[in-house]
Design a protein that fits this description.
434 Repressor (Amino-terminal Domain), three-stranded antiparallel sheet, globular, disordered N terminus
């Protein structure tokens, strides 16, 4: 490396020199601090030049030093230069893992690489150990608060992470924490309640006791701040060990993709060549009505949401079979198992996957297992199952030792696995993600829907305070309209995101500011559009929502589009296509603007509207079915507990009348 040589002639002996480099691009303690540096790296950087100044102070070099002190300083500096050269660094570098987490290993390798006398080798080890202690003391001093002031979370994190020598971004990924979130904490931001599991994962990564970092969070000055109860499902998901078991689509082999296309054709065909039950048909919908799906779930301009769900589960199924270690319940393979749908018929493979799914939810058998079991069992159903009917094709695709001996044995295995899955479906009665948990604080209030009206008003106030004509103002106006539409017409998120508006009146939102607005949908736009009860959907936009719709369409929608073309009513921050982040935005808005709320999405809003209406209008399930655009049977199944509560309440009133 070409460098500059700075001699210490002012110390009376020129044989000691320091090598520095120009425009050095290197991996430092927290990645490069030159071009391309990230803010966390700049925040955490500790230059060797600062450490050398500390070394000078330690030997009083700038204050009439003794000859002995000067010589010791030179010796230490010589050792440091040699060590840095071995590590590929100069004194213009930042301190990295060579003085932190990798110190012992690096020093050992360095000392083994030099040819010196044993005493010199020992002295250099002592020099480096002293320099490391000086570095650690300097870090502590840098992040120690003034007397009488407690060390905050940000300062403590900076010290702890600096001591590891691991770049913040890398450490965040190792702990399963969003790097941007860690960056905010390092800057002094107060962690939100829903990020506490991530902070605890960071505690584990740093080897700290539980709540060692959580206890440093400053309490809000406003003691009236509402406590936020995080749903158990989110806590479990946040604290769950991350895994990368599912196979990426790019890892799916040609043979499996051929099988998948055959299954896809069978499921979407109006005239399948094999037998198929009427309920085994997969529905295709226009691509513009749905969010982005896997290419494996598309056929021309149409997409299949059911196929998208199934291929995602199949990638996880095959990934678990291939990658789950035997000590964690996986199958011990002599060689990697083939990718084939035939595994859906094998009892051992199915049991392995179902047990893994249950372990992921802490032993709860819930709807996730039920959905997978129902989809696979339809492939195994005697007489009409896709796999049951093709014994000669799929039997031989299993490896020896797992392969049935004959076609009849294959069909017997299909029947056995079909029974196993149907039994599993009947036993999967628990709930992993209780839809009432995120809205529990609202359901426990006398008027659960009022905080949402208040939130809409609050967002409108924020819009008024934003710069006129700005993107910020337009986003606030759009967000207020989103909550207003969900409250007045609790649609499914796919329906809401796919609403269209066109100046010529051909969209699914039709009307004008003078005539009012209507939402007019065909069965293809609705999740229930394939059912016998499905019919066209035409609903007036509520009068209190109309002014918001007027101003959004007339002014703010164009601001959000910024010259892009789009037929969608609600414009996200993407490219004018369907708003992929709508659910995420609703969760953010409800968390931010509803006191005490952990945040909830459009699905929970539907549940909130239905529950509040039935509590105030006991037994009025028909109205709820119309509000949710669901069939009455589904509503009765999902809200039977409210019917039971209503029955007991009326019975209690009857008993009281006997007094």
């Amino acid at each position: 490396m070409k460098g500059n040589y700075i001699g210490f002639s002012n110390l009376g002996n020129t044989r000691y020199s320091v090598v520095t480099g120009d425009n050095v691009i290197e991996v430092t303690q927290f990645s490069s601090v030159f071009a391309g540096s990230n803010p966390p790296e700049l925040l955490m950087a500790f230059p060797y030049l600062d450490l050398i100044n500390k070394l000078k102070q330690n030997f009083s070099i700038d204050d009439s030093p003794t000859a002995s002190a000067v010589q010791q300083y030179r010796n230490y500096l010589s050792t440091l230069n040699g060590y840095l050269a071995f590590c590929g660094k100069t004194i213009e570098s930042n301190v990295g893992t060579e003085l932190a987490g990798n110190f012992d290993a690096k020093v050992r390798d360095y000392l083994e690489s030099i040819t010196v006398a044993p005493r010199t080798r020992r002295d250099r080890r002592l020099h480096l150990q002293a320099i490391q202690k000086l570095y650690q003391a300097s870090l502590t001093a840098r992040h120690t608060p003034p007397p009488g002031k407690q060390c905050g979370l940000g300062a403590r994190l900076r010290l702890l992470i600096a001591e590891t020598g691991v770049p913040p971004k890398s450490l965040a990924k190792q702990a399963g924490v969003d790097p941007t979130t860690l960056w905010r904490w390092l800057r002094g931001a107060t962690p939100r309640a829903d990020t506490l599991p991530a902070l605890r994962r960071l505690e584990v990564r740093l080897g700290l006791a539980r709540d060692a970092l959580v206890s440093l969070i400053e309490k809000p000055a406003d003691e009236q701040a509402a406590a936020v109860a995080i749903p158990a499902y989110r806590l479990r998901m946040a604290e769950r060990t991350q895994h990368n078991l599912p196979l990426p689509e790019s890892a799916l082999g040609a043979s499996f993709l051929q099988e998948w296309r055959a299954l896809f054709d069978y499921k979407i065909s109006d005239f399948p060549t094999l037998e198929r039950q009427s309920r085994g048909h997969w529905r295709l919908i226009p691509r513009g009505v749905s969010s982005t799906l896997s290419p494996l779930a598309q056929r021309g301009p149409m997409v299949c949401p059911t196929a998208n769900i199934f291929i995602e589960r199949m990638r996880t199924f095959l990934g678990v079979l291939t990658n789950l270690p035997p000590e964690k319940g996986g199958i011990a393979w002599n060689e990697s198992p083939p990718q084939t749908l035939a595994w859906c018929a094998h009892p051992q493979a199915l049991e392995c996957f179902m047990q893994w799914m249950t372990s992921q939810s802490n032993g709860v058998r819930h709807n996730g297992q039920k959905v997978f079991a129902r989809a696979v069992s339809s492939l195994l159903r005697p007489q009409t199952g896709f796999l049951w009917q093709q014994a000669a094709v799929y039997r031989v695709r299993l490896p020896e030792g797992f392969r049935p001996a004959s076609d009849d044995a294959w069909r017997e295995m299909c029947a056995k696995s079909h029974k196993f899955l149907r039994d599993y479906i009947r036993s999967a009665t628990s709930v992993s993600r209780n839809p009432a948990e995120p809205i529990a604080n609202l359901l426990n209030s006398p008027n659960p829907l009022k905080p949402i009206r208040d939130a809409i008003a609050h967002i409108d106030t924020d819009a008024a305070n934003a710069p006129p004509g700005s993107i910020s103002e337009a986003r606030h106006k759009r967000n207020a309209l989103v909550l207003a539409l969900l409250l007045s017409n609790p649609m499914r998120v796919r329906t809401l995101a796919s609403l269209t508006w066109m100046p010529n009146g051909h969209g699914t939102v039709r009307g004008s500011p003078t005539e009012g607005w209507r939402i007019q949908l065909q069965p293809v736009h609705l999740k229930t559009g394939n059912s016998k009860q499905s019919r066209g959907y035409s609903v007036k936009v509520a009068d209190w929502v109309k002014p918001m719709m007027d101003e959004y369409i007339e002014e703010y929608r164009e601001t959000l589009l910024a010259g892009k073309a789009s037929t969608y009513l609600l414009v996200g921050d993407e490219d004018g296509g369907i708003w992929e982040g709508l659910s995420r935005t609703v969760r953010h808005l409800t968390r931010r603007y509803i006191p005490g709320s952990p945040g909830f999405g459009p699905h929970a809003m539907r549940h909130l509207v239905a529950t509040d209406w039935l509590r105030k209008h006991p037994g009025d399930f028909l109205t709820v079915a119309e509000l949710l655009n669901d069939n009455l049977t589904t509503v009765l199944e999902n809200y039977a507990h409210l019917r039971r509560e209503d029955s007991f309440a009326r019975y209690e009133a009857y008993l009281n009348s006997l007094e």
